[in-house]
Amino acid sequence: MLMIQLDDPLADRLQQAATSEGTQPDIVAKRVLDEHLPRPNQASLALLAQWEADQATSDPAELARRQAEGEQFMRDLASARVNSEGSLARKLWP
Fold first, then answer.
1. 13-26 confidence digits (pLDDT tens)
2. Which of 6, 7, 18, 86 sits most deeply, having the most CB atoms within 10 A of its CB?
3. Can you tell me the distance from the alpha carbon of 28 to that of 30, in angstroms, rounded to the nearest whole number?
């Protein structure tokens, strides 16, 4: 539970908003905070979306190269797992 102290003008504005919406001040405060505070990872998601947009391509050769690079990366991860955990290491993917 969080408690905050509001100065009188702000408390009055909150009460007026709650009254006009027919609800309680805490409900209005929660909604306003939810609408205006950043959500977790939004900056990261926006950055990833920008990177994806920057790297977008429809070139078949480039898409094939990226696919092969991704598959090699996955094979390297699997190999590193076996090398570190031994031959009985659980396979993460086929």
1. 999 999 999 999 99
2. 18
3. 5
